[in-house]
From TrEMBL:
Domain of life according to the entry: Bacteria
Residue intervals of the N-acetyltransferase domain: 12-160
Keyword terms: Acyltransferase, Transferase
GO molecular function: acyltransferase activity, transferring groups other than amino-acyl groups
Official protein name in the record: GNAT family N-acetyltransferase
Length: 290
């Protein structure tokens, strides 16, 4: 492939169908399976990933999208998040990914950002080597958890030391998370924070107990999905009680968490509540810009 014929430009200038097709091709052999998303859901994907196409870039050859780097700005934190980066099979090995990554770091610095961040599966060694070679360092492991239906749920749960849990309006829950970010938890993955939660089309519920908050949804008839679990207390007593209450409230459903849960703000509580930590996990990585 003639690299001189490669042209870089804003993703906002590209037809959505082209961007969608490039994403599907690039992730056809993804570590956790192909990215099978219909074109009709493309706007929802952008919203849930908080992607700004004007900040995102593509590499073109003869008007065909060969590679892309989608950016989700976290302006309040002074961070740009690399929401997704990939290349179609024909463009792999051309240096397109390195070119886009270097460009992202340079533009973030020019925009006054203090860091660039991303999530990558720890088992994706090729991508991990690329990011490490560009100065990204792992901040946290992000685990997924799964619990089978609670066929023998206890008749009563231990009394929480922080009082009874309380349902919380989503606006209050989002404000609580935002405050937590401002007062110490400034490196939560974007997906467990208000911008992404608010873009979720499903009906969400929030519970609060003491210093812990749980946001979850019922995506179908048989599962419960935890979208955000945060405990400000390192002991995670309140998160543990919320996890038990969730399983007890829906004993006929399996419960799961995607690979976005930090162990130190809720993951350890899930494990104590009978959730199995999944081996496949992500790393939250960040590169400082000086």
């Amino acid at each position: 492939m003639d690299n001189a014929a490669l042209v870089e430009g804003p993703a906002s200038d590209i037809d959505p169908a082209q961007l969608h097709a490039a994403l599907v091709q690039a992730f056809a052999d993804y570590l956790i399976g192909p990215f099978d998303m219909p074109l009709a859901q493309w706007p929802h994907f952008l919203a849930r990933q908080c992607i700004d196409l004007s900040l995102s870039r593509v590499i073109l050859r003869d008007n065909d999208v060969l590679a892309f780097a989608f950016v989700a700005p976290r302006a309040a934190m002074g961070v740009w998040r690399l929401a997704a980066m990939g290349a179609v099979p024909a463009a792999r090995g051309t240096g397109a990914a390195q070119r886009l990554l270097n460009d992202l770091i340079q533009r973030a610095a020019h925009a006054g950002m203090t860091a660039v961040e991303l999530e990558v599966f720890a088992q994706n060694t090729r991508a991990l080597r690329l990011y490490e070679s560009h100065g990204f360092q792992a901040l946290h492991d992000l685990h997924g958890y799964h619990a089978q239906p609670w066929s023998q749920a206890p008749l009563s749960l231990p009394s929480p030391t922080s009082g009874a849990f309380a349902p919380l309006a989503l606006e209050e829950a989002y404000a609580w998370i935002a405050q937590a970010q401002l007062t110490g938890l400034n490196d939560l993955p974007l997906q467990v924070t208000p911008p992404v939660l608010a873009a979720n089309p499903l009906q969400l519920q929030a519970w609060k107990l003491g210093r812990a908050l749980l946001v979850f949804t019922l995506p179908d008839e048989v599962k419960v999905q935890i979208l955000s679990l945060i405990d400000r207390n390192p002991a995670q007593h309140d998160a543990y009680q919320l996890a038990l209450q969730l399983r007890s409230s829906f004993p006929e459903r399996a419960c799961f968490v995607h690979e976005l849960q930090r162990s130190d703000v809720g993951g350890d509580a899930l494990a104590r509540a009978g959730f199995e930590c999944q081996a496949l996990h992500q790393l939250l990585m960040r590169r400082s810009i000086t």
